[in-house]
Amino acid sequence: MNEDVLAAPVLWAFFDLQESIFFIIRVVAAVGGAVFGWILTPMLLRPVYRLLARRPIPNWAVPWSRLGGGLGLALLLFWFLPLGGGGGGWGWGAGPGGGKPGAIGGPGKYPGNQAASDKKTEVKDKEPHDKKADLVKIEMLGGKHYKGDERYYLLKQEGPAKTLDEIKDYFKQHKNLELSIVFSAKNESVADGHMAVLNLVAEIETTYHYRPKFEYPDLEKANKAAGK
Predict the structure, then answer these.
(1) How far apart are CA 44 and CA 56, in angstroms?
(2) Using CB atoms within 10 A of its CB, is residue 95 exposed (0-12), middle (13-18) or buried (19+)?
(3) pLDDT at position 118, please?
């Protein structure tokens, strides 16, 4: 039996479990950040206040500073802790590379959790504004294929890799495009919840006023095999 057929349901279950693990890690990090902020904020605020005001900080301001510092650091860690797609692999940790082998064709969390991605992008599904628009696919890079400098994007699925600013310049020169974003095992694409993807989606929404399609060729191939 085709290994891809056996792997597909296991893969989807793993993604659901992974999202739950990421949430727990964020909560634990936020709690730790709140404690750290509660302790550290007065230590930093006292000398700064004395330097600026030339007098000791009022006693009533200390607990408020603790509360603000702890809450602020907790929120920062919860919302911006780089989990769910650190430049490739299964989305564990920050930074590019280091992905574990995937169930379908190799590394990369390319199927992702589409429902979670929909919530993050908060955009509506719309058809491209012009049915005659040129079809352009942008493939995401990750793992060992990501060489740094924020060059996550293969325009028309061809090299060299481009930055988001270079993609924006291309958009300025081409006002009539039907865009899709491709996630592949071959290029160890970052997760569809990665900031590089969300930034690209936001730019397409702003420029063309529709949401790009997400394509997972390896997953589609497995689904076709399962249907046979």
Answers:
(1) 13
(2) exposed
(3) 52
58 and 125 belong to one structural domain: no
**Pair (73, 121) in one structural domain:** no
Which amino acid is present at 204?
A: I
What's the CA gap between 104 and 110, in Å, rounded? 10
Distance from C-alpha of 163 to C-alpha of 153, rounded to nearest angstrom: 6
Q: Is residue 86 exposed (0-12), middle (13-18) or buried (19+ Cβ within 10 Å)?
A: buried
**Which residue range is the domain that position 49 belongs to?**
3-80
pTM for this structure?
0.46
E strands in 73-216: 134-140, 153-155, 177-182, 213-215
Condensed to tens digits (0 to 9), the pLDDT of residues 192-206 reads 899 999 999 999 999
Number of structural domains (the chain) is 2
Residue for token digits 């696919």?
Answer: 137
Average pLDDT over residues 81-96: 46
223 and 120 in a common domain: yes
CB proximity list for 43: less than 8 A, separation 6 or greater: none
